[in-house]
Amino acid sequence: MSKDDKTGDLLAFLDEDLREEYDKFRASAPGYDMMRKFVLDKQETRNRRRAMTPVARRRDVTREELEHTIRANADTSEHIAYAHTVLALCGFPYRRPPEGATEYKQTYGRNSLIVHAGHVLDAETGAMIKPGLPYGPKARLLMLHVCTEALRQNTNMIRLADSLSAFIRELGYEVSGGKNGTVGLFKEQMTRLAAANMSIGLFQEDRAHTIQTHPIKEFCVWLPQQAQRRVLWKSELTLEHEFFVSLKRFCLPVDIRVMRAFAHSARQIDIILWMDYRVKRLNKPRFLLTWPMLKEQFGADVAEMSKFRQTLRDDLKRIAEVFPKLPARLTDEGLLIERRPEGVFNLPKRNDLPRFGG
Protein backbone atom coordinates (compact mmCIF):
# COMPACT_ATOMS: atom_id res chain seq x y z
CA MET A 1 0.00 0.00 0.00
CA SER A 2 1.34 3.41 -0.93
CA LYS A 3 1.83 6.20 1.56
CA ASP A 4 -1.07 8.07 -0.06
CA ASP A 5 -3.37 5.08 0.50
CA LYS A 6 -2.30 4.86 4.15
CA THR A 7 -3.02 8.55 4.57
CA GLY A 8 -6.52 8.14 3.15
CA ASP A 9 -7.29 5.26 5.56
CA LEU A 10 -5.96 7.27 8.48
CA LEU A 11 -8.06 10.33 7.68
CA ALA A 12 -11.22 8.18 7.54
CA PHE A 13 -10.38 6.76 10.97
CA LEU A 14 -9.86 10.09 12.74
CA ASP A 15 -12.34 12.41 14.46
CA GLU A 16 -12.97 15.58 12.53
CA ASP A 17 -10.80 17.85 14.69
CA LEU A 18 -7.87 15.40 14.54
CA ARG A 19 -8.37 15.02 10.80
CA GLU A 20 -8.09 18.78 10.39
CA GLU A 21 -4.99 18.83 12.60
CA TYR A 22 -3.39 16.03 10.62
CA ASP A 23 -4.43 17.37 7.25
CA LYS A 24 -2.18 20.40 7.76
CA PHE A 25 0.70 18.02 7.10
CA ARG A 26 1.43 16.47 3.72
CA ALA A 27 2.52 12.86 3.53
CA SER A 28 5.86 13.98 2.19
CA ALA A 29 6.37 16.70 4.79
CA PRO A 30 9.16 16.39 7.40
CA GLY A 31 7.88 14.85 10.61
CA TYR A 32 5.10 12.93 8.86
CA ASP A 33 5.70 9.65 10.72
CA MET A 34 5.83 11.41 14.08
CA MET A 35 2.61 13.30 13.36
CA ARG A 36 0.90 10.12 12.19
CA LYS A 37 1.79 8.32 15.44
CA PHE A 38 0.67 11.31 17.51
CA VAL A 39 -2.80 11.51 16.00
CA LEU A 40 -3.23 7.73 16.04
CA ASP A 41 -2.34 7.55 19.74
CA LYS A 42 -4.69 10.44 20.47
CA GLN A 43 -7.54 8.80 18.55
CA GLU A 44 -6.98 5.43 20.22
CA THR A 45 -7.08 7.09 23.64
CA ARG A 46 -10.39 8.75 22.73
CA ASN A 47 -11.84 5.48 21.47
CA ARG A 48 -10.77 3.67 24.63
CA ARG A 49 -12.31 6.34 26.86
CA ARG A 50 -15.58 6.32 24.95
CA ALA A 51 -16.06 2.74 26.08
CA MET A 52 -15.52 3.69 29.74
CA THR A 53 -18.04 4.80 32.32
CA PRO A 54 -17.84 8.53 33.17
CA VAL A 55 -16.22 7.70 36.53
CA ALA A 56 -13.57 5.43 34.96
CA ARG A 57 -12.93 8.03 32.26
CA ARG A 58 -12.31 10.68 34.93
CA ARG A 59 -9.72 8.43 36.60
CA ASP A 60 -7.97 7.79 33.30
CA VAL A 61 -7.83 11.50 32.44
CA THR A 62 -6.46 12.29 35.90
CA ARG A 63 -3.73 9.65 35.59
CA GLU A 64 -2.65 11.20 32.29
CA GLU A 65 -2.65 14.71 33.78
CA LEU A 66 -0.53 13.63 36.75
CA GLU A 67 1.93 11.74 34.55
CA HIS A 68 2.33 14.80 32.35
CA THR A 69 2.91 16.99 35.41
CA ILE A 70 5.63 14.67 36.69
CA ARG A 71 7.38 14.36 33.31
CA ALA A 72 7.35 18.13 32.83
CA ASN A 73 8.30 18.77 36.46
CA ALA A 74 5.48 21.32 36.38
CA ASP A 75 4.39 23.56 39.24
CA THR A 76 1.41 21.99 41.05
CA SER A 77 0.72 24.78 43.52
CA GLU A 78 -2.48 25.86 41.75
CA HIS A 79 -3.92 22.37 42.29
CA ILE A 80 -3.17 22.13 46.01
CA ALA A 81 -6.03 22.03 48.52
CA TYR A 82 -5.93 21.42 52.26
CA ALA A 83 -7.73 19.10 54.66
CA HIS A 84 -7.62 19.16 58.45
CA THR A 85 -5.39 16.21 59.37
CA VAL A 86 -7.83 14.68 61.87
CA LEU A 87 -10.76 15.06 59.48
CA ALA A 88 -8.58 13.33 56.87
CA LEU A 89 -7.78 10.41 59.18
CA CYS A 90 -11.17 10.16 60.89
CA GLY A 91 -13.91 10.85 58.39
CA PHE A 92 -17.68 11.25 58.44
CA PRO A 93 -20.14 8.39 57.84
CA TYR A 94 -20.00 6.94 54.33
CA ARG A 95 -23.75 6.69 53.93
CA ARG A 96 -26.81 8.59 55.18
CA PRO A 97 -27.06 7.81 58.92
CA PRO A 98 -30.34 6.37 60.29
CA GLU A 99 -33.06 8.91 60.95
CA GLY A 100 -32.54 10.47 64.36
CA ALA A 101 -28.83 9.55 64.62
CA THR A 102 -27.06 12.34 66.53
CA GLU A 103 -23.51 11.08 67.07
CA TYR A 104 -20.77 9.48 65.02
CA LYS A 105 -17.37 8.40 66.33
CA GLN A 106 -14.24 7.25 64.57
CA THR A 107 -10.70 6.68 65.77
CA TYR A 108 -7.35 6.12 64.11
CA GLY A 109 -4.58 5.12 66.49
CA ARG A 110 -4.48 7.84 69.12
CA ASN A 111 -6.43 10.34 66.99
CA SER A 112 -10.19 10.49 67.28
CA LEU A 113 -13.20 12.43 66.06
CA ILE A 114 -16.71 12.59 67.47
CA VAL A 115 -19.33 14.44 65.43
CA HIS A 116 -22.58 15.59 67.05
CA ALA A 117 -25.59 16.72 65.04
CA GLY A 118 -26.58 20.26 66.05
CA HIS A 119 -29.19 22.84 65.05
CA VAL A 120 -29.29 25.43 62.30
CA LEU A 121 -31.81 28.04 61.16
CA ASP A 122 -33.80 26.98 58.10
CA ALA A 123 -33.49 29.95 55.74
CA GLU A 124 -36.80 29.16 54.05
CA THR A 125 -39.09 28.34 57.01
CA GLY A 126 -37.45 30.43 59.73
CA ALA A 127 -37.47 27.44 62.12
CA MET A 128 -34.52 25.91 63.95
CA ILE A 129 -33.95 22.44 62.53
CA LYS A 130 -31.65 19.52 63.23
CA PRO A 131 -30.51 18.52 59.73
CA GLY A 132 -28.55 15.46 60.86
CA LEU A 133 -24.96 14.30 60.57
CA PRO A 134 -22.82 15.16 57.51
CA TYR A 135 -22.01 12.12 55.39
CA GLY A 136 -20.69 10.88 52.06
CA PRO A 137 -18.17 12.31 49.58
CA LYS A 138 -19.81 15.73 49.25
CA ALA A 139 -19.43 16.48 52.97
CA ARG A 140 -15.74 15.61 52.75
CA LEU A 141 -15.21 17.69 49.62
CA LEU A 142 -17.06 20.66 51.09
CA MET A 143 -14.96 20.55 54.26
CA LEU A 144 -11.87 20.38 52.03
CA HIS A 145 -13.12 23.45 50.16
CA VAL A 146 -13.82 25.40 53.34
CA CYS A 147 -10.42 24.56 54.86
CA THR A 148 -8.62 25.44 51.62
CA GLU A 149 -10.36 28.81 51.22
CA ALA A 150 -9.65 29.72 54.85
CA LEU A 151 -5.93 28.97 54.49
CA ARG A 152 -5.56 30.56 51.07
CA GLN A 153 -7.25 33.75 52.19
CA ASN A 154 -5.71 33.56 55.68
CA THR A 155 -9.03 34.35 57.30
CA ASN A 156 -11.71 32.44 59.13
CA MET A 157 -14.45 34.44 57.33
CA ILE A 158 -15.24 32.92 53.93
CA ARG A 159 -17.66 33.86 51.17
CA LEU A 160 -19.01 30.82 49.35
CA ALA A 161 -20.94 32.35 46.45
CA ASP A 162 -18.87 32.12 43.30
CA SER A 163 -16.14 30.01 44.91
CA LEU A 164 -18.60 27.20 45.68
CA SER A 165 -19.97 27.17 42.13
CA ALA A 166 -16.43 27.13 40.75
CA PHE A 167 -15.53 24.30 43.14
CA ILE A 168 -18.54 22.24 42.03
CA ARG A 169 -17.48 22.70 38.40
CA GLU A 170 -13.87 21.85 39.27
CA LEU A 171 -15.07 18.52 40.64
CA GLY A 172 -16.67 17.74 37.28
CA TYR A 173 -20.26 18.49 38.26
CA GLU A 174 -22.59 20.82 36.43
CA VAL A 175 -23.96 23.64 38.59
CA SER A 176 -27.69 22.96 38.58
CA GLY A 177 -30.67 23.84 40.76
CA GLY A 178 -33.82 21.96 41.61
CA LYS A 179 -34.53 19.28 44.18
CA ASN A 180 -31.94 16.86 42.81
CA GLY A 181 -29.56 19.46 41.37
CA THR A 182 -25.94 19.62 42.43
CA VAL A 183 -26.37 22.87 44.35
CA GLY A 184 -29.16 21.32 46.43
CA LEU A 185 -27.10 18.22 47.20
CA PHE A 186 -24.07 20.26 48.26
CA LYS A 187 -26.34 22.67 50.15
CA GLU A 188 -27.75 19.80 52.22
CA GLN A 189 -24.28 18.68 53.28
CA MET A 190 -23.16 22.25 53.97
CA THR A 191 -26.19 22.71 56.22
CA ARG A 192 -25.32 19.52 58.08
CA LEU A 193 -21.71 20.67 58.44
CA ALA A 194 -22.82 24.11 59.66
CA ALA A 195 -24.87 22.48 62.42
CA ALA A 196 -22.24 19.93 63.49
CA ASN A 197 -20.24 20.03 66.73
CA MET A 198 -16.98 18.12 66.90
CA SER A 199 -14.66 16.74 69.54
CA ILE A 200 -11.17 16.30 68.06
CA GLY A 201 -8.42 14.38 69.83
CA LEU A 202 -4.93 14.35 68.35
CA PHE A 203 -1.28 13.96 69.25
CA GLN A 204 1.69 16.07 68.19
CA GLU A 205 5.05 14.74 69.32
CA ASP A 206 4.77 14.47 73.14
CA ARG A 207 1.58 16.52 73.53
CA ALA A 208 -2.05 15.43 73.51
CA HIS A 209 -4.58 17.94 72.18
CA THR A 210 -8.34 17.89 72.78
CA ILE A 211 -10.35 20.39 70.77
CA GLN A 212 -14.04 20.93 71.46
CA THR A 213 -15.29 22.89 68.49
CA HIS A 214 -18.24 23.97 66.44
CA PRO A 215 -16.06 24.40 63.32
CA ILE A 216 -18.53 26.61 61.48
CA LYS A 217 -19.29 29.25 64.09
CA GLU A 218 -21.62 31.33 61.90
CA PHE A 219 -23.44 30.42 58.70
CA CYS A 220 -25.13 33.23 56.78
CA VAL A 221 -27.34 32.57 53.74
CA TRP A 222 -28.41 35.47 51.54
CA LEU A 223 -31.95 34.92 50.29
CA PRO A 224 -32.48 36.03 46.66
CA GLN A 225 -35.48 38.20 45.91
CA GLN A 226 -36.62 35.91 43.12
CA ALA A 227 -37.35 32.30 44.00
CA GLN A 228 -36.13 31.01 40.63
CA ARG A 229 -32.65 32.38 41.41
CA ARG A 230 -32.23 30.24 44.53
CA VAL A 231 -29.64 28.20 42.61
CA LEU A 232 -27.16 31.02 43.34
CA TRP A 233 -27.45 30.36 47.09
CA LYS A 234 -25.05 33.12 48.09
CA SER A 235 -23.65 32.51 51.55
CA GLU A 236 -20.74 33.15 53.86
CA LEU A 237 -19.45 31.43 56.96
CA THR A 238 -17.10 32.02 59.85
CA LEU A 239 -14.88 29.27 61.21
CA GLU A 240 -14.50 29.08 64.95
CA HIS A 241 -11.17 30.62 66.00
CA GLU A 242 -9.87 27.51 67.79
CA PHE A 243 -10.68 25.32 64.80
CA PHE A 244 -8.98 27.79 62.43
CA VAL A 245 -5.85 27.83 64.58
CA SER A 246 -5.76 24.01 64.72
CA LEU A 247 -6.26 23.88 60.95
CA LYS A 248 -3.13 25.99 60.45
CA ARG A 249 -1.15 23.61 62.63
CA PHE A 250 -2.62 20.34 61.39
CA CYS A 251 -3.32 20.74 57.68
CA LEU A 252 -2.72 18.04 55.07
CA PRO A 253 -2.05 19.14 51.44
CA VAL A 254 -3.89 17.21 48.72
CA ASP A 255 -4.11 17.50 44.93
CA ILE A 256 -7.61 18.65 44.01
CA ARG A 257 -7.34 16.77 40.70
CA VAL A 258 -7.06 13.54 42.68
CA MET A 259 -10.09 14.43 44.78
CA ARG A 260 -12.00 15.17 41.57
CA ALA A 261 -11.14 11.72 40.20
CA PHE A 262 -12.65 10.07 43.29
CA ALA A 263 -15.43 12.55 44.03
CA HIS A 264 -18.05 9.78 43.82
CA SER A 265 -16.61 7.62 46.63
CA ALA A 266 -16.21 8.67 50.26
CA ARG A 267 -14.21 5.52 51.09
CA GLN A 268 -11.74 6.01 48.24
CA ILE A 269 -11.23 9.63 49.32
CA ASP A 270 -10.55 8.45 52.88
CA ILE A 271 -8.11 5.76 51.73
CA ILE A 272 -6.10 8.27 49.67
CA LEU A 273 -5.96 10.87 52.46
CA TRP A 274 -5.05 8.25 55.06
CA MET A 275 -2.39 6.66 52.85
CA ASP A 276 -0.90 10.04 51.96
CA TYR A 277 -0.58 10.80 55.67
CA ARG A 278 0.97 7.40 56.45
CA VAL A 279 3.49 7.39 53.57
CA LYS A 280 4.86 10.79 54.54
CA ARG A 281 5.37 9.78 58.15
CA LEU A 282 6.80 6.28 57.79
CA ASN A 283 10.05 6.04 59.73
CA LYS A 284 10.66 2.41 58.78
CA PRO A 285 10.81 0.55 55.45
CA ARG A 286 7.25 -0.75 55.67
CA PHE A 287 4.08 -0.65 57.73
CA LEU A 288 1.32 -3.28 58.04
CA LEU A 289 -2.28 -2.48 58.88
CA THR A 290 -4.06 -5.74 59.73
CA TRP A 291 -7.47 -6.66 58.33
CA PRO A 292 -9.28 -6.01 61.66
CA MET A 293 -7.61 -2.58 61.82
CA LEU A 294 -8.53 -1.90 58.18
CA LYS A 295 -12.15 -2.79 58.81
CA GLU A 296 -12.27 -0.48 61.82
CA GLN A 297 -10.80 2.30 59.71
CA PHE A 298 -12.69 1.87 56.44
CA GLY A 299 -15.43 -0.72 56.94
CA ALA A 300 -17.97 0.82 59.30
CA ASP A 301 -20.72 0.31 56.70
CA VAL A 302 -19.81 -3.30 55.81
CA ALA A 303 -20.92 -6.03 58.23
CA GLU A 304 -19.08 -9.10 56.92
CA MET A 305 -15.29 -9.25 56.82
CA SER A 306 -15.29 -11.23 53.54
CA LYS A 307 -17.39 -8.58 51.83
CA PHE A 308 -15.19 -5.81 53.23
CA ARG A 309 -12.06 -7.53 51.91
CA GLN A 310 -13.50 -7.54 48.39
CA THR A 311 -14.71 -3.95 48.76
CA LEU A 312 -11.23 -2.79 49.78
CA ARG A 313 -9.60 -4.74 46.94
CA ASP A 314 -11.93 -3.03 44.48
CA ASP A 315 -11.22 0.39 45.98
CA LEU A 316 -7.44 -0.07 45.83
CA LYS A 317 -7.70 -1.31 42.25
CA ARG A 318 -9.51 1.91 41.29
CA ILE A 319 -6.93 4.04 43.11
CA ALA A 320 -4.09 2.18 41.38
CA GLU A 321 -5.61 3.16 38.02
CA VAL A 322 -4.60 6.74 38.84
CA PHE A 323 -1.43 5.82 40.79
CA PRO A 324 0.18 2.79 39.08
CA LYS A 325 3.13 3.04 41.50
CA LEU A 326 0.94 3.00 44.59
CA PRO A 327 3.24 2.05 47.50
CA ALA A 328 0.75 -0.40 48.99
CA ARG A 329 -0.49 -3.93 48.40
CA LEU A 330 -2.94 -6.27 50.10
CA THR A 331 -1.68 -9.50 51.69
CA ASP A 332 -3.31 -12.26 53.73
CA GLU A 333 -2.37 -10.28 56.84
CA GLY A 334 -3.63 -6.87 55.71
CA LEU A 335 -2.37 -3.79 53.87
CA LEU A 336 1.39 -3.45 53.50
CA ILE A 337 2.62 0.10 52.89
CA GLU A 338 6.19 0.77 51.82
CA ARG A 339 8.18 3.92 52.39
CA ARG A 340 8.63 5.90 49.18
CA PRO A 341 10.10 9.29 48.33
CA GLU A 342 7.73 12.25 48.42
CA GLY A 343 5.86 12.68 45.18
CA VAL A 344 3.79 9.48 45.14
CA PHE A 345 0.61 11.54 45.28
CA ASN A 346 1.95 14.31 43.03
CA LEU A 347 2.33 16.93 45.75
CA PRO A 348 5.10 19.50 46.08
CA LYS A 349 7.96 18.71 48.42
CA ARG A 350 7.20 19.69 51.99
CA ASN A 351 9.72 22.56 51.94
CA ASP A 352 7.98 24.06 48.88
CA LEU A 353 4.58 24.31 50.58
CA PRO A 354 3.43 27.54 52.20
CA ARG A 355 3.68 27.71 55.97
CA PHE A 356 0.64 28.80 57.93
CA GLY A 357 1.16 30.47 61.29
CA GLY A 358 -0.24 28.84 64.40
Q: Residue ranges: pLDDT <50 for 5 or more in a row?
A: 1-8, 225-232
Q: How many separate structural domains?
A: 2
Q: Beta-strand percentage?
A: 15-25%
Tell me the Rg in angstroms.
23 Å
What is the tally of beta strands? Answer: 14
If strands are numbered along the chain, what order do they take across the biggest sheet?
2-3-7-8
Number of H/I helices: 13
How far the N terminus sits from the C terminus, by CA atoms, comes to: 71 Å
- Sheet with the most strands? 4 strands, antiparallel
Indicate the mean pLDDT.
Answer: 82
Query: Helix share of residues?
Result: 40-55%
Q: Specify the overall morphology.
A: globular
Helix and strand sequence: HHHHEHEEEEHEHHEEEEHEHHEHHEE
User: Structural class, please?
Assistant: alpha+beta
Oligomer: single chain
Write up what this structure looks like.
The chain has about 350 residues and is an alpha+beta fold. It folds into two domains: about 5-70, no CATH class; about 80-350, no CATH class. It is built from 13 helices and 14 strands. It has helices spanning about 5-15, 15-25, 30-50, 55-70, 85-90, 135-155, 160-170, 180-195, 240-250, 255-260, 265-280, 290-300, 305-320, and strands at about 80-85, 105-110, 110-115, 120, 130, 155-160, 195-205, 205-215, 215-220, 235-240, 250-255, 285-290, 330, 335-340. It has a four-stranded antiparallel beta sheet with strand order 2-3-7-8. Strands 6-10-9 form a three-stranded antiparallel beta sheet. A hairpin with a 3-residue loop joins strand 13 (about 330) and strand 14 (about 335-340). Helix 4 crosses helix 13 (about 305-320) and helix 11 packs across helix 13. The longest helix is centred in the N-terminal third of the chain and has 19 residues, at about 30-50. It is globular. Mean pLDDT is about 80; it is low at about 1-10 and about 225-230.
